[in-house]
Amino acid sequence: MSGVALILAGHGSHISASTxxxxxxxxxxxxxxxxxxxxxxxxxxxxxAFSQALNMVExxxxxxxxxxxxxxxxxxxxxxxxxGLGGPLTRIxxxxxxxxPTIGEHRILDAIVDERLRDAINRFNLAAAESAxxxxxxxxRRNRQSRDTARQQAERLRAANWFDEVVAVYLDDxxxxxSVYQSTRSPNIIALPYFLADGSHVGIDLPRALGISGSATVxxxxxxxxxxxxxxxxxxxxxxxxxxxxxxxxxxxxSQAVDGAWACFPSAGRRLLSKALDAGRIxxxxxxxxxxxxxxxxxxRAGSRKFGSPASLRRHLREQPFRPLPTSxxxxxxxxxxxxxxxxxxxxxxxxxxxxxxxxxxxxxxRLTTESLETVxxxxxxxFRGIQNLAKxxxxxxxxxxxxxxxxxxxxxEDLAANDAALPCRSACNVWLSAALEMGESL
Length: 443
Ligand code: SF4
Prior knowledge:
Largest sheet: 5 strands, mixed
Distance between the termini: 49 Å
Bound molecules: iron/sulfur cluster
């Protein structure tokens, strides 16, 4: 297949729906603009994983845009390592994989930062000459370049002579967030999270480090007034930044009319699924039944709630309560989607279980490749590095607890054969890896 695929790579979270939600919102918008043949997302902490994303698309040209606000550990190390990329352009067989800079490095972010600060000034009637700005980055000691984008924003604002004082502070590096109370003296502090999403860092960790309540936009600390802005990434322009970065590769990414709400999904496995559905079969994939005309939860009753768009269905299934593992068996039950065409049925399954159809089809065709735990552990550079040293008891307990509550079968286990599995799993997911580490500590 020729064509172009666009993959947005984000962090994801095990505790906050909005971290990956921002990325999925952007995917939904770009699909409706029809800017590429296949558009999807992948994540560090949620499925589909970075390592799985290239298996989901079939296009010869694939553009990967890191939706991170800093180049650093995830964009420079974890993402290329997990996807097998060697730089801005990697050839894998006949495919060309383009890896763009992060969204946090794009100039459009300057305008978003300025807009957030202008909003704070107007909303709280502040004088810039009596206000300090704290640009808050994540940072990490594993990669000093993680500090760069927040630092550069602080330098830009300082050079503009707009505010009395401007500093960059970091959640996980120096100078730390509370240092703002020593490094500035203005009566007002405008705290701007240089973060993508309204997730747990923005909602919990940053306010805690600032000493203000998590739900407050205004606080008083050490006799100073603190005004807490929304993170830069919640702005709709982030989607435009992603598109601009994709276009910078030289590929067109032009808007085109799309055929309905379920267009531009990743296509690996679609032909096999469609063939079965067009032959009149009703397939059961995990907790979901699929026919050519309808996709529904196997517990759905007549009159169950109908969904008509990927965004509404995804929100229903993953946000109330938050389910970081889309294939966990606790999926809300009472829903259905009516489909105009077979491809729509595939797109609904892909919305419910991202990446599962690609692996199902590969397994049916006898070409599924799996990755051992040792292989996954070997390419880790961060916290998961020690996973291969865990005791067997911890691994087995994690299989029981995590994989036991999942509709997939961990065929990456050496003692399980892929062809015995209805819905195989290529490699240990991040939810499993995190749980195994915790298990190793508790046993
Ligand atoms: S089978 Fe296990 S490792 Fe695979 S997705 Fe499910 S929980 Fe994760």
